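Q: What does the assembly look like in three dimensions?
Context provided by user:
Components: two
Sequences:
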Amino acid sequence: MPAEAVRAIRERALPEGGFRSRVQGGFRSDATAWAVLALRQAGQEAELWQEGAASLAAGQLPDGRIPVSPQHPEAFHPTPVAVLAWQGLPEFQTASRRAVEFLLAATGKHFPRKSDDPAEHDTAIPGWPWIADTHSWVEPTALTLLALSAAGFLDHPRVHDGRRLLLDRQLPQGGWNYGNTRVFGVTLQAMPDSTGVALTALARGVPRAQVAASLEYLHREVSRLRTPRSLGWALVGLSAWGERPPAAEAWLRACLRRQEVAPYETESLAVAALALCPQGGLLPWEGGTM
Amino acid sequence: MTLSRRAFVLGTLGGAALAWSGYALRRQLRRRAWTERVFIGRAPDYGMDLTGLMLAGFREVGLRAEEVQGRRVLLKPNLVETAEGKPQINTHPAVIRAAAEVFRRMGAGEVVVAEGPGHVRDTHLVLEQSGYAEMLRAERLAFVDLNYDDGVRVKNAGGWSRLRHLTLPASLLEADFVVSVAKLKTHHWAGVTLSMKNLFGVLPGSYYGWPKNVLHWAGIPQCILDVTATVRPHLAIVDGIVGMEGDGPIMGPPKAAGVLVLGRNLPAVDATCARVMGVDPWRLSYLARADGHLGPVGEAAILQVGEPISAVATPFALLDVIPAHRGLRRKP
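A: Here is the predicted structure of the complete assembly.
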């Protein structure tokens, strides 16, 4: 991992354990889970990531979820990232199992699509939401698929539904956005980071032909991406399918050395750091230090 | 003394009726007394002297330097998605640049730009592709990505939706003077998006999701009112130089309206913008409900300064296929 990324993530560490999302601010479980993942992958700052992993477990609620903060139990989207961050750590096996049980029971709001619904995706397929009592969207569904795969639930019915949801939300021209495809008869735009995370979650789960247009979309976009989140996810997604561009590392290093408009949030730095791993760093059944 | 059940019920009902009529009377009186000034400036393109136009507008709406001197001013643009070659999607960076310059000239202690886009998790990508990154660097303006800011739970001061609390970003609460710098656009769920709807962007995605689906389930019009009542911005500026018509807020075509609209009261500014767009503000449920609570909406209660509405009004295309657009057209 480049020294810049390690330094930036290290600067977000809190004395009591865990990480901030920004240069200033308080503990955030989402930032902590991503920082632990990135530092473990890089094999650096063991004390910091161990404290971070412990702080995630300390913030786990009785039902197994890991909320963004104790005041916001409804914002449970850090849960799958925490499962990935704890992967292979015996001391967090129980916490991880409880988190997985929560994820298997949790779902977004789903309902049969009415014929006059302006949104054209299949609203009945169960996936995972960002926030409790809302609809399921692409990124939380993809991250949960990765977490459940890491926990050995590759063939669970929820995993099959999650894959089905992602394929249903794939844009006709290839790629994904946050999770709407066509609204009022108009096809929406793809986004590189959403596409990268969805492709990562679908790797080894569906045939290439089903996502070929999305891989092509990323191949077209990736060389002009200059921000760590979009470039990082694009490369993680392509790497998951064995299609990592040869210039990937050079692009990432240049991206992290650019003068930023404002400090990148911890998660973006972590995704870029993970993307430096030749396998993309997030496939639970491959490589790295996991 | 004993009170019969009938007398008790009648007394209670009478008391409630009296309280209601008192409330209605107070609201009516308040509505009559509440007037606001809204400035409309003609701005044919983004290359013009927007700073001069904004300064003139600030004077017209009575904004004094003492209000911002030494203070932290937060400019909240409307940044929705990446926008290469589509100036109609986001508040143009030239408008933010001009606003920052004016506040700096007025003696603001610090000017920051802050936004939490609703669809895109990579705010930096939006900054790069919308021309903001270049502008922010050139003007040495700080940017805060509100989507990842720490959230602070506050009481929902509006009470229109079922949400009892809202989670606001710490950076917003630290600001002394908040400006909603919106875009003049149609919107396929809300009818139009102006300075009030623009405030959805202050709610951090970390606590509301991408999209901010919590607000959709709680009711978009109700949440527009709640967020406006809770954030209470000090000023609204609407970029109508190039707006968006049709299937807004992302997929519609550009509409050159050539105006910059600003004022200190958000419902008054949005009602004026609606009239410029050929939309009847009373038919926008959230504006109709805002009247008398958050500001005036009636034409007689808004003192238009600068250009009159009639000189700049240009009907924005509304689509019959979109339920939120039906019946919005203002009768001439």
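Follow-up: The CA atoms of residues 182 and 248 of chain A lie 32 Å apart.
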